[in-house]
Every structure is written in structure tokens, then in C-alpha cells.
Design goal:
The complex is a heterodimer of chains A (284) and B (334).
Chain A lengths: L1 H10 L1 H27 L4 H5 L11 H10 L6 H32 L5 H10 L9 H10 L6 H5 L6 H13 L2 H9 L4 H12 L1 H16 L3 H6 L8 H8 L9 H21 L1 H9 L4
Helix pairs in contact in A: 2-15, 4-15, 5-9, 5-12, 12-16, 14-15
Chain B lengths: L3 E10 L2 E11 L4 E5 L6 H9 L6 E6 L2 E2 L10 E4 L11 H11 L4 H14 L15 H13 L5 E5 L7 H18 L2 E6 L2 H7 L2 E6 L2 E6 L1 H6 L4 H6 L6 E4 L9 E4 L5 E3 L4 E10 L3 E8 L4 E7 L10 E5 L6 E3 L5 E2 L3
Parallel strand pairs in B: 3-8, 3-9, 6-7, 7-8
Antiparallel strand pairs in B: 1-2, 1-4, 4-5, 9-10, 11-12, 12-18, 13-17, 14-15, 14-17, 15-16, 18-19
Helix pairs in contact in B: 2-3, 2-4
Classes of the chains: A mainly alpha (284), B alpha+beta (334).
């Protein structure tokens, strides 16, 4: 702390310049969001007629309740729930599976251990988009179109998270596993009692990243959900855009956009402390 | 409380043999120190007794029962690790209680046993703390507490003091010995520190390259080393070795402890004084013979310290010279 203060003092006027730069940066990023918010609080006519308003109007309640309860194709509330289930499913599923596979790879010597690790690692090179056609085929054959399992399962396997946990587990001293063994802990007991609590901050950091990853999925839900009731919010926004001669209900679309932003923001703010600790600190 | 027996115990990793057959019967309540340089297989030997390494051939018996294929938890042992291996997210209490919880010991009994151990180790004020809030010595105590609460038949220590500073090491050494006496538990203790070995052991196993060079009581080992290696490893400063030919004897080498050589105007051998280290109670004089052999003499601080570059005769009793053959084995005197 003392050091940091010293640094600030030395820089004097530079400090204001830095802040100015940061403020401009923030304003630059924030302005479109502000516009979206303003657009979600005014009437349709106010948006279509230039110039665009820069201050919020008085239609906030009407627009948002219309979006939540009716939407354009499906009520936004339904889409929010769908997105939430999908994002949570993906995040928790990925974490559970990668924890277990990392545990297996690091702590058990089984035939083909190296091969399995490299196979998992290889999938890093195959993002969803590359394997989307075969994946779609598989999911369709399993009859999982328009279902939560179809939305979640293909995205659950995660090389990144497995790799991350593998690296973390390898920094855990071997003696800890041996001590647990002498204490009489079977492997799964050791996993639950020792490894899991020690990975807490890593799990939190990963949860934030994966939740947002899941929440922002666009292409996959677009492919496998044909029923508007199963639409997720991110693809739902796009579906709201008018096709042909329909008139876009911009205030409702903007209200939907704002609503779509809220859950990730809550997750990030709520888990900020753990998240940052997980990124910087390696607790031993 | 139990006896431990190792019978022609061998271990190999792939094609490399690390333990070449160890035999020892350890009595109930005995304190055995396994000592040797790094890489001599002493930790592997301990881990085989613990059940953390498999046995390649031979037998490990604890309390008369063959335990080669028994899980560590069922061997009735407790182990203290070099880096303590405390569970970082658990309080001191939980660290000590973990093994008992797994063994499904009733809660009141767990609390009682942990508290007794904590009292014994002066850990009572720290029971609710996390390991990272403790000093090195306290962590060491917690690791021992974790071993004590299980009331094992055998204590296994894997270089438990090597992460402590010198002063604390001496203090913990005494505590470990006192604790082991008080509990009357059989103990196996691995160290590379020969002072720890000398002070703690009822008997010690001096390991060299996977072989037990000598097994015996510390003073016996010191006075009668079985091999050149043991003579050089046990004792500080180490034994002086010189070619037998140098003093007109046949073959092999001769070892003389620094305290058994006296400096005089003339002697069996002449050497040039290098430098001298005055340690207060005693002085270590380093000399070099004509053929370049380094000799260290330990003499009383009251004796005059010879000046650098001076020539001195080395004098010793024939009985104190240890003779070793070309393979480094001890040869009977005369």
C-alpha cells in the first residue's frame, strides 16, 4: 500500500491524465449501453425520428413489462429462465466434469493416461463451430432438439477447465494426498474433503467465466431450438429483429437487451472477490 | 505399541534397484533412526513401512502381522511429513481430527483426544487457527498432533525437522524424543542429519546406496564403524582417511577420528598446518600431509594453536586407528 501511494505522489499531474484517459475509455464503452437503456424507456416514435433522445423517457415500466410478459416471439421472462438454466448447466457441468477428469489424470495411473490427456487437450482446437454439424446430428438423433439437455450437454466437455484444474492439482504437494491416505481417506473422500475446498477460488473464477460463456451462446441455441418457448435470450434478441415488412418494436428489443445483460453482471459483481482471488492467488 | 520387522526388503523402480535387501527386527518402543546421504533410499524405506510405496520383494511386518498389501490406514501407523502436509483449509483441530472422523470415532471422543494431544504439544490456544497462521514450529507440532491422536503402534517421521531453523530444530528434537518416551511408541525416523541420528536413536540404520551399512546403537556405530562410509558419515568433523602405505602398513586405508590425533614435534607422520578453527571449547586444526591428504585434528582449546605453514608430527594410539580393506570394509585390528 505504502509503495502504491508513493508511486501516485511521484506521478502528480500524470494521475489526472491517467484518470481522464480511463474516464474517456469508460464513457466510450458505456455510451452504447446508455443509448440502449434510453431507447428502452421511450416510445417507438421517439427512436425512429432523429435525433435520438439522450435522456430516459417515461415509458420504462410499460416497455419492460411488455418485454417480460409478451416479448415479440416469446416472453423475455421465459427466455431469461432458459438462458439461466443453460448457463448454469454449462458452468456447473463443465466444472464438475473437468474437476473429475483432472483428478483422474493427475492422481491415478491408468493405461492410456497420457493419451486421454492429449485427446482432451486436442479438443481445445475444435470449438463448437467446427464440430457443429456432427454435434447437431448426434443431438437430433438422440431427440434432444428443443430441450435443455440438448442445449447443455454438447457444451459441457471442457478442455480448458480440465487443463486449468490439472495445473492446479499438480501444484498441490503429493504429501497432502499421502497424509490423507495415512489418515484413511479413500480417493473420493480426499477429493471431496481436501481437493475441492482447496480449489474453491479456482472454481469460483471458472464459474464466472463459464457462466458468461454459457449465457452468450448464440449459434448453438439458434440451431437446436425451433420452438420459441425454448429460445435463449441472446438468440432471442436476434429473433426479435423484423423480417420483411414487419415493424421492429425497438423499445421492447432494447429492454430485452438490457435485461439480458443483468444476470452476467450480477454474477460478476457477486463473485468478484472470489473471482479475483482465484485469478491472482494460489493458496497453499 | 508394536514390533516392526523388515525381512530382506527390496525395492526397485523399473529396472533400478533402490533398496537392496534390508533386515532388521525393531523392538516394541524402540526409536530407530534411518540416516544416510540423499538418494540412499532411506525415505523409500520409510515409505514402504508406511505403505505409500509397494514392496518389490521381502516382507514388512508390524506387530507380527505381514502388512505388505495392507493400506496405510490399516497398518496402525502415523506419519509426520517433511513439509508437514497439513490440510491448508482446515483448522488445527480439524487437521488433527480428520483421521478420527474418517475412522468414525464418536465426536466427544475425537474432541477429547485432540484436546489431550493439543495439551501435550502446547497447541491449545491455536486449535481454531488455520495452518498458514502458524509458525514453522507450531505447524510441526500440529503434524505431530495429527499423528498422536490416532494412537498408532508405530510413528514414522520423514525428515520432520529439516524445514526448521537451527535453534528450533534442537528444541523440537528434544521434544520428539521426550514425546516418544512418554507415549512408549515404536518410532522410525528418517534424517540426513547425523546429529539428530546420534541424539535420538536407540539404534540407527546407516544407509548407503540402498544398503544398510551398519545397524547399531549410536555410540557403537561411532566407536566401531563397520565400513569406511559409516566412519566418514557419522561424526563431525569426519574421520581422517589415509593410505595405509603412508604409515608403512599393507594395503587398504586407515581411518582416525580427529579427536584421536595429537600434534607433536615429531610423530608417525609429518604434516603442514593449514588453518585452524577455534570453536571456543575446542580447536579444529587442518593440516596437509606431503602426499596431499587432508587431516583434521580436534584438540582442546587450552592447547597452543600452531601457526600456519608450520610443520607438525601427527601422533595417535594404534588402537584408535581403524583399518579398512580396498572395498571399504572394516578389517579387524592386528
Amino acid at each position: 500500500m505504502a509503495d502504491r501511494n508513493g508511486m501516485v505522489e511521484k506521478r502528480g499531474g500524470g494521475l489526472w491524465l491517467t484518470h481522464l484517459g480511463l474516464i474517456i475509455g469508460v464513457a466510450f464503452i458505456f455510451f452504447p449501453i446508455w443509448l440502449a437503456f434510453v431507447a428502452s424507456t421511450v416510445e417507438q416514435q421517439a427512436i425512429v425520428r432523429p435525433p435520438m433522445p439522450l435522456l430516459p423517457g417515461d415509458r420504462l415500466w410499460e416497455n419492460y413489462s411488455k418485454a417480460l410478459s409478451a416479448g415479440v416471439n416469446a416472453p423475455v421472462a421465459t427466455m431469461l429462465v432458459n438462458s439461466l438454466i443453460m448457463a448454469l448447466g454449462i458452468a456447473l457441468g463443465k466444472i464438475a466434469i473437468s474437476l473429475l477428469s483432472a483428478f483422474a489424470i493427475v492422481y491415478f495411473r491408468f493405461p492410456g493416461r497420457k493419451i486421454f490427456f492429449w485427446l482432451i487437450f486436442l479438443t481445445l482446437m475444435l470449438p463448437v463451430e467446427v464440430r457443429i454439424v456432427p454435434t447437431f446430428e448426434v443431438i437430433a438423433n438422440f431427440g434432444m432438439l428443443n430441450s435443455y439437455s440438448g442445449l447443455i450437454l454438447p457444451l459441457v466437455a471442457s478442455a480448458t477447465a480440465t487443463f486449468l484444474f490439472r495445473q492446479f492439482f499438480m501444484t498441490v504437494p503429493d504429501e497432502l494426498a499421502e497424509a490423507a491416505r495415512v489418515d484413511g481417506a479413500r480417493p473420493m473422500r480426499f477429493f471431496v474433503d481436501i481437493l475441492l475446498p482447496m480449489s474453491r477460488t479456482n472454481i469460483a473464477a471458472l464459474f464466472v467465466i463459464l457462466f458468461i460463456y454459457g449465457w452468450n451462446q448464440y449459434l448453438w441455441p439458434l440451431l437446436i431450438t425451433t420452438d420459441p418457448e425454448m429460445n435463449t435470450i441472446v438468440m432471442g434478441i436476434k429473433q426479435m429483429f423484423p423480417s420483411g415488412d414487419d415493424i421492429a418494436d425497438w423499445p421492447v428489443i432494447m429492454a430485452t437487451s438490457i435485461l439480458a445483460m443483468i444476470p452476467p453482471v450480477i454474477v460478476v459483481i457477486g463473485m468478484q472477490k472470489l473471482f479475483i482471488r482465484g485469478l491472482v492467488e494460489s493458496e497453499k | 505399541m508394536a514390533t516392526v520387522a523388515l525381512q530382506s526388503l527390496r525395492k526397485s523402480f523399473g529396472k533400478t534397484d533402490v533398496i537392496h535387501g534390508i533386515d532388521i527386527d525393531i523392538a516394541d518402543g524402540e526409536f530407530i533412526v534411518i540416516v544416510g546421504p540423499s538418494g540412499c533410499g532411506k525415505s523409500t524405506l520409510l515409505r514402504m513401512v508406511a505403505g505409500l510405496e509397494t514392496v518389490s520383494s521381502g516382507e514388512v511386518q508390524i506387530g507380527g502381522r505381514r502388512v505388505n498389501d495392507v493400506e496405510p490406514m490399516d497398518r496402525d501407523i502415523a506419519m509426520v511429513f517433511q513439509n508437514y502436509a497439513l490440510y491448508p483449509h482446515m483448522s488445527v483441530f480439524d487437521n488433527m481430527a480428520y483421521g478420527l472422523k474418517i475412522a468414525k470415532v464418536p465426536k466427544p471422543e475425537i474432541a477429547e483426544r485432540v484436546e489431550t494431544a493439543a495439551k501435550l504439544l502446547q497447541l491449545e490456544p491455536y486449535l481454531q487457527r488455520k495452518p498458514r497462521e502458524l509458525s514453522g514450529g507450531q505447524r510441526q507440532r500440529v503434524a505431530m498432533g495429527r499423528a498422536i491422536v490416532r494412537k498408532p503402534a508405530v510413528f514414522l517421521f520423514d525428515e520432520p525437522l529439516s524445514n526448521l531453523d537451527a535453534k528450533l530444530r534442537v528444541q523440537m528434537r528434544l521434544e520428539i524424543k521426550a514425546l516418544q518416551r512418554e507415549l512408549g511408541v515404536t518410532a522410525l525416523y528418517v534424517t540426513h542429519d547425523q546429529v539428530e541420528a546420534m541424539t535420538l536413536a536407540d539404534r540407527m540404520i546407516v544407509m548407503n546406496g540402498g544398503v544398510a551399512d551398519q545397524i547399531g546403537a549410536p555410540l557403537d556405530v561411532y566407536a566401531n564403524p563397520a565400513t569406511e562410509f559409516v566412519a566418514g558419515f557419522i561424526g563431525s568433523p569426519p574421520t581422517n582417511f589415509l593410505d595405509a602405505a603412508l604409515v608403512g602398513e599393507q594395503g587398504g586405508r586407515i581411518g582416525i577420528r580427529p579427536e584421536h590425533i595429537r600434534l607433536d614435534a615429531a610423530g608417525r607422520l609429518t604434516a603442514t598446518v593449514g588453518y585452524a578453527e577455534a570453536l571456543g571449547a575446542e580447536t579444529l586444526v587442518h593440516l596437509r600431509t606431503e602426499d596431499g591428504t587432508q587431516i583434521t585434528v580436534r584438540q582442546d582449546a587450552t592447547l597452543p594453536i600452531p601457526g600456519e605453514g608450520e610443520s607438525r608430527g601427527l601422533v595417535w594410539e594404534s588402537a584408535s586407528a581403524m583399518r579398512f580393506d580396498a572395498e571399504g570394509r572394516r578389517v579387524a585390528a592386528g
